[in-house]
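Example (one chain per record):
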Amino acid sequence: MVELTALLCVLGIACGQILFKLGANLIGRDGFWAVRPLLVLFGALALYGITTLAWVWVLKSAELGKIYPLMALAFVLVPLASYFVFGERFDTRYLVGVVFILLGIVLTSGPRG
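Predicted structure:
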């Protein structure tokens, strides 16, 4: 249950980043005080708040050194989501970096002997 909650926290952080970018784009188009950008930014902040509370529970229930490397998944999920949501592109170096990030997560979060 702790690992699942930690993964949901990572997903929440990644979604929050996409919402922040969407809000920033809307600010550029509608202005900062327009309703749509403020609603999107408020949604991002609310998601971050909920995610932070869940993360505190995760930290209470798990070893920080074992669970924290899962946060690196955000470095994979956010650019991937930006590709689908905003049409942003990334190159081969990014894909190589993703492999190293995933390898690092497996090495640091796996069973300890």
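Caption: The mean pLDDT is 92.
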